[in-house]
Amino acid sequence: MAYVRKQNFEANDDLLRKLPEIPIDELGDSHPLEVVSDSVRIKDAMELEAFMNERVQIRVHASQMEGSLAIECLTLNGITQPIVRGVPTWVKRKYVELLGQGSTSKIQQRTNPYDLSDITITEQRAIAYPFDVLSDTDKGRKWLEGILKAD
């Protein structure tokens, strides 16, 4: 029969100095904190935050595309907002911004049959999740027009 002798092991400064240093970086993107000391900028930031968290009633159109989901999940800053297509839904304005900015592109290449070096490339863009705003403030509707025109 073999006996195993237990030995107490303690990490001490000498042992730790002998271990190789292993750098461990942060995962993901890190951004420096913005220190805001200007009271006007603080007020503007607070007003924008309140505006983007106002509730707006929308309806995302049902999709006829094969394989499309009945529920769309919009994620912003790690928080997900599910939206059922075709059903009026109250969401925060920040998710409406995502819907307004989301688009798909279709690129077509056409060649002139008489001159094969004459190639025309066209891009067609469409909103990824067509939607209607059912209830919003006048300020909110004007803001959304600007978002939709920016593309």
Describe the structure.
The chain is an alpha+beta fold and 151 residues long. It has one domain. The protein is 27% helix and 33% strand. The chain has four helices and seven strands; from the N terminus they run H-H-E-E-E-E-H-E-E-E-H. The strands form three sheets. Strands 4-1-7 form a three-stranded antiparallel sheet. It has a two-stranded antiparallel sheet with strand order 2-3. A two-stranded antiparallel ribbon has the order 5-6. Helix 3 packs parallel to helix 4. The protein is extended, with a radius of gyration of 28 Å. The mean pLDDT is 81.
Q: What's this model, at a glance?
A:
The protein is of the alpha+beta class.
Low-confidence runs: none
Residue share in β-strands = 25-35%
Please report the distance between the alpha carbons of the first and last residues.
Answer: 79 Å
Shape: extended
Give the fraction of residues assigned to helices. 25-40%
Evaluate the radius of gyration: 28 Å
Q: Structural class of the secondary structure composition?
A: alpha+beta
Strand order of the largest sheet: 4-1-7
Major sheet details:
3 strands, antiparallel
Count of all domains: 1
SS summary, helix count: 4
Following the backbone from N to C, one meets helices and strands in this order, namely HHEEEEHEEEH
Can you count the beta strands? 7
Mean model confidence by pLDDT: 81
